[in-house]
Structures are given as structure tokens and as C-alpha cells.
Write a structure and sequence with these properties.
Elements lengths: L15 H12 L6 E4 L9 H16 L3 E6 L9 H13 L8 E3 L4 H13 L3 E4 L3 H7 L17 H13 L8 E4 L14 E5 L13 E3 L1 H12 L3 E5 L6 H10 L7 E5 L11 H9 L14 H7 L3 H11 L10 H15 L2 E2 L1 E2 L2 E6 L8 E6 L9 E6 L2 E5 L19 E4 L4 E9 L5 E9 L16 E2 L1 E3 L4 E8 L24 E9 L11 E4 L3 E5 L9 E6 L4 H8 L1
Parallel strand pairs: 1-2, 2-3, 8-9, 10-23, 12-18, 16-19, 21-25
Antiparallel strand pairs: 4-5, 5-6, 6-7, 11-22, 12-15, 13-14, 15-20, 16-17, 17-18, 21-22, 23-24, 24-25
The structure holds adenosine-5'-triphosphate and magnesium ion (MG).
Length: 563
């Protein structure tokens, strides 16, 4: 009997954003959604931005629309070309394409200025001479209404004259601002005459020295959306209280379209701080190797660590979008990383803390090519040849001279299997002057070639190994959480105090298979029994550097099984 057809995806499975978009498409309000991802180029993107990118591009793709990449470049003092370039690279790497729809808020500076004059002419904006501190003081609080500025009732002519002179550069930074004239008593502080323009004599990466006044985010954002014909302007919850202002500008200006803003909960992750400002501080204070340090929650850091883009997309899909703030487990992100890497990473052997093994009954000078499978999850990945010889490296902690009951790996008198090669038995140990075991004397059983015995006996442990003569030296960087606690900063103290001293451990004396030298940065492999690793860009032609992406043990799956 044939399987019944897959049921069509139920409406209930759509998140609230997709429900809104689906309804707008169905009703014909918008035949196809147009979304945008609007980063401010004042730092590198982090995994929170990845959520927003996957949402904006994902929604548009699913409903036959398109997504614009728009740099929200309204603050030239903090913005740099390096950030612009990194943002483009990261969005592309995540697998999304804005096509020809690359924009900048600065593309609209002329139009924004013109509309600002229009608001002045309508009596809906005025030039204020209060200082920034005074403006803050006059604004009031959540419980007290604001106070009107003494400059609030200037005539249209005076406002227009001052605003034009602001634009011409007649006044120093901070001397005056342009404010929207809305309501100083509004319960919503964002409507208490928000600032639309401030004076800033700074050159801009796009407009150079053309402007010395720059629009605020609140003024620039919605109008940019309207100019581009954005239908659904998706942002994080902290902008919910800005929405009335977003709508106020759209209402009072002759904009060419009517975008709507929708807010969703930002991504928060355990053991992680997602704030460009804090990440910049880590970089500036030299706490990390840069924006793309493999411990950084930046997209470039996760990439360098070896996280596949597919895993980030899967994670975004798995956590979904909601209207309520919550904290996601870092382990849930790692779970997706393992899921992808398990399917796609070739297995290789590496020994991080080597212990020498000499096979006393193996012919001196003999070398065998052992055929080892590349990926048990993927038979099409084939096999490779790994050289085997009399002297081997095994992992130091795979041997104990005096093993406790549950230790099944190598010990004096005990037999173990070397992966795909032979069974070996430890016959003796050699120690240095300090009493440290520095070498094992073992015998091998020639009848067990390939890893199985004709008599059917089977050792409890299988170890990874390398031929000492053929192994290549490597540096391996073991990464762990950047923060020592799941909720960094929860004590209210300095976040830096919560950084983990164990977030990076550099192993300099590691050995790897010969085939692991000379691979391009970003190549991902599984080191058998050790974890997933990725070639770092610090590698040289002779000496590779590997980053541990994630260990093999899936703490997340275990947690879920218990729940
Ligand atoms: P940060 O607070 O880290 O400096 P930001 O919000 O200032 O970030 P923007 O460049 O302004 O950074 O953000 C671009 C887009 O990414 C915005 O639409 C913003 O809402 C979204 N975004 C930022 N952080 C997160 C997050 N943690 N989760 C989901 N979306 C986010
Ligand atoms: Mg911002």
C-alpha cells in the first residue's frame, strides 16, 4: 500500500510573523513581502543578527518576496568600512543573497533632509538650543510628564533659517538639534519631541564631508523602509515603544509606501553576551584574538571555530520567533553543529597528548598502509590509507598503569584494538627519572589485521593512533565557553570578571595524519574520539593549526532525553 500523502504544513506551525505575512499575501495587501536586514556598521555581526538575517531572508524566500541589505549608517563616528565588508561577507556566508538590493540610509540623506524641512514648514519640527543634558532632564520620566523646551514655539521662519544654517555648518557639534514637535506629556517617552537631527562635523564612509548634520535612527529608519517599499519591517522587541513614532513620521510625511513594523524577541544565549559594544571592548582590550576569535559569538568567530552556516540556519529554524523574551541554551546551538558535522565531516586521527608505543614484535622498517573508513555515517565518503609502523603515538590518557575498575583502555597486560589496524597488548612500561611513563612496550597480533580476530575475541576499547614516523606536528586549540557562567553579568558586576580562564587551551605538541597538512583554512574534520575540528587561518604550509569546534558529547540531546 502506498504511503498516504504528506499533510500540507498546518497553519498552526507558522510563527506569528509568518502568519501576518501569509495573511497579507492572501488578502492581497502585499502580493509579496519585502523585508530588510538593517545593520549598523559599527561592529561585526553576532549570532543574534544571524537570527534576524534568517528571519528576514527566510520569510521573503518562503513567500516569494525579496530582502534588502541596508546599512543603517547614520552615525559616522562609529562606523567603518571594515565592518561594512565583514557584514556583507557574513550574510553571504550564511547563504543569503540581496541581489541588487544593497542600500544605505545615507542614500536617502537628501530626501530625509527635504522631508525634515517639510515637517518644519508644517509646524511639526523645531530647532532646539538646549544641551543634550537639558533635553534629557526636560524629557521627564516614566511617571512624570516632560517639560516643554523654551525654544519649542519658535516661528516656522526662524526654525527653517536655523535648520538650514545647521546644515550649512554654521554651528559647532551639539549646539542645536532638530526635534519633532509631538507631545511632551505623552505617556510614551519616545513621543516627547524626539531628536531628528544632530550636528556632527564628521566625515562619513559614503557621503564624505557632504553632511555635518545626521538623522537619528528613529527618523531615518521608517522613512528608509518607505522609500524602499519595505512591507514588513521586522525588529527586536526593544523597538516596540518606538512603533508609535515610526507610524507618526510615516503619517505626517508624503512617503511613497506604508511599511509596518513588527517586533520579535531577540536571541539570548547562555554563556554568551550579544552586544556589539561589549564585543568591541573584548577586541580593543586584547582579551581575544580579534573579532573572529573562535570564542567570539560573532558570525565570523563561529565560522573560524568551524560552525557550518547550515547549523546556524537550522538553529534559527529550531528556536523560531516569538513575542516573548527567553534565553536559549548554548548547548542547543552546539547540537545543530554536531548534527551537521556528524553527517559531513571526514574522520581523521590526531593525537593531542602523545604517548609512544613500540611494538616489539613488529618488523623494524616495515610500513603498512591501513585502509580506514572516512565516515561511518556516509559510505560514499570512502576510505583512505593511513601508514602503520613499529613506533606509534597513542593518546596519553588512553593508558593507565594502575587502572580503576571502569577504565577499559590500555593498561599493563591488557589488550586493546587500534582502530582498523591490529590488537595490541601492553607488556611493559618505560619511565623517565621522575617516574613518568614515557613509552609503552607492546606486542601486536598479526592475525587481527583490519581490527578483528579470527577467534572472535573483542577488546573492550578501540584507540586512535598514528605512526610516529609519519605523523605531522600540529597545534591544536581547544575552545570552551567564553564565560565561566551561564548568565554572565547577572551579579551586576563587570562582565570581564565572568570571562572563563579556560576558554582557550593551546596544545602545541599534537600529531596528526599526514593528509591533514596543507589543507585550506576552514576545512572541517572529526578527530576520532576527540571532537570536531577546523583548520585555522593561522596554519602554515608545514604546521597546521586546528580549532576544536565542539566536542563529541551532546549534552543537549542528553538533557532533552531526561526532560
Ligand atoms: P547590538 O545590540 O549587539 O549592538 P544592534 O541591535 O545595535 O546590536 P544593529 O546593527 O542595529 O545591532 O542590528 C541589526 C538588526 O539585527 C536589527 O534589526 C536588530 O533588531 C537585529 N538584532 C540585533 N541583535 C539581535 C539579537 N540578539 N537577536 C535578534 N536580532 C537582533
Ligand atoms: Mg543598534
Amino acid at each position: 500500500m502506498a504511503n498516504p500523502p504528506e499533510p500540507a504544513p498546518a497553519e498552526e506551525t507558522l510563527d506569528f510573523i509568518r502568519e501576518i505575512v501569509a495573511e497579507d499575501v492572501r488578502s492581497g495587501r502585499h502580493p509579496a513581502p519585502v523585508t530588510r536586514f538593517p545593520p549598523e556598521p559599527n561592529g561585526y555581526l553576532h549570532v543574534g543578527h544571524a537570527k534576524s538575517i534568517c528571519l528576514n531572508f527566510g520569510v521573503a524566500q518562503e513567500f516569494g518576496g525579496r530582502t534588502h541589505l541596508r546599512f543603517d549608517d547614520t552615525n559616522p563616528t562609529k562606523e567603518e568600512q571594515e565592518y561594512i565588508d565583514s557584514i556583507k561577507e557574513d550574510v553571504r556566508w550564511l547563504g543569503f543573497d540581496w541581489g541588487k538590493h544593497l542600500y544605505h540610509a545615507s542614500d536617502y540623506f537628501d530626501q530625509l533632509y527635504e522631508w525634515a524641512e517639510l515637517l518644519v514648514q508644517k509646524g511639526l519640527a523645531y530647532v532646539d538650543d538646549l544641551t543634550a543634558d537639558q533635553i534629557r532632564e526636560y524629557r521627564g520620566t516614566l511617571t512624570e510628564p516632560g517639560k516643554e523646551s523654551p525654544f519649542r514655539h519658535r516661528t516656522v521662519e526662524e526654525n527653517l533659517d536655523l535648520f538650514r544654517r545647521m546644515r550649512k555648518g554654521e554651528f559647532p557639534d551639539g549646539a542645536r538639534v532638530l526635534r519633532a514637535k509631538i507631545d511632551m506629556a505623552s505617556p510614551n517617552i519616545n513621543l516627547r519631541d524626539p531628536v531628528m537631527y544632530r550636528i556632527l562635523h564628521a566625515s562619513h564612509p559614503m557621503t564624505d564631508d557632504e553632511w555635518c548634520i545626521y538623522p537619528s535612527y528613529d527618523y531615518a529608519h521608517g522613512q528608509s523602509d518607505a522609500i524602499e517599499g519595505i512591507t514588513h519591517s521586522l525588529c527586536t522587541l526593544e523597538f516596540e515603544d518606538h512603533r508609535p513614532l515610526y507610524d507618526w513620521f510615516i503619517e505626517h510625511l508624503p512617503v511613497p509606501s506604508r511599511p509596518r513594523q513588527y517586533e520579535f524577541a531577540r536571541l539570548s544565549l547562555t554563556y554568551t553576551v550579544l552586544s556589539k559594544r561589549f564585543l568591541l571592548r573584548l577586541v580593543n582590550e586584547g582579551r581575544v584574538r580579534g573579532w573572529d576569535d573562535p570564542r567570539m559569538p560573532t558570525i565570523s568567530g563561529l565560522r573560524r571555530r568551524g560552525f557550518p552556516a547550515e547549523a546556524l540556519r537550522q538553529f534559527a529554524e529550531r528556536i523560531g520567533v516569538a513575542k516573548r523574551e527567553s534565553v536559549n541554551e548554548y548547548a542547543a546551538l552546539e547540537h545543530e553543529v554536531r548534527d551537521v558535522l556528524n553527517r559531513t565531516s571526514p574522520r581523521r586521527m590526531a593525537v593531542l597528548r602523545p604517548l609512544r608505543v613500540v611494538l616489539t614484535n613488529y618488523p623494524e622498517g616495515q610500513v603498512e598502509e591501513i585502509e580506514v573508513g572516512n565516515n561511518p555515517e556516509d559510505p560514499s565518503a570512502g576510505t583512505r590509507k593511513v601508514p602503520f609502523a613499529r613506533e606509534l603515538w597513542i593518546e596519553g590518557d588512553d593508558f593507565l598503569e594502575d587502572p580503576p575498575k571502569k577504565f577499559f583502555r590500555l593498561a599493563p597486560g591488557r589488550e586493546v584494538r587500534l582502530r582498523a589496524a591490529y590488537f595490541i597488548t601492553c607488556q611493559g612500561v618505560i619511565k623517565d627519572a621522575a617516574g613518568q611513563v614515557v613509552e609503552l612496550r607492546c606486542t601486536y597480533d598479526p592475525a587481527t589485521r583490519g581490527g578483528s580476530a579470527p577467534d572472535g575475541r573483542s577488546p573492550k576499547a578501540t584507540l586512535h593512533w598514528l605512526s610516529a614516523r609519519h605523523a605531522q606536528a600540529a597545534e591544536v586549540r581547544l575552545y570552551d565557553h567564553l564565560f565561566a557562567r551561564a548568565d554572565p553579568g547577572a551579579d551586576g558586576g563587570d562582565l570581564l570578571a565572568d570571562l572563563s580562564p579556560k576558554s582557550e587551551e593551546v596544545v602545541t605538541g599534537a600529531w596528526v595524519e599526514p593528509s591533514l597538512v596543507g589543507l585550506p583554512a576552514g576545512t572541517r574534520v572529526q578527530f576520532e574520539r576527540l571532537g570536531y575540528f577546523c583548520v585555522d587561518r593561522d596554519s602554515t604550509a608545514e604546521r597546521p593549526v586546528f580549532n576544536r569546534t565542539v566536542t563529541l558529547r551532546d549534552t543537549w540531546a542528553k538533557l532533552q532525553a531526561k526532560r
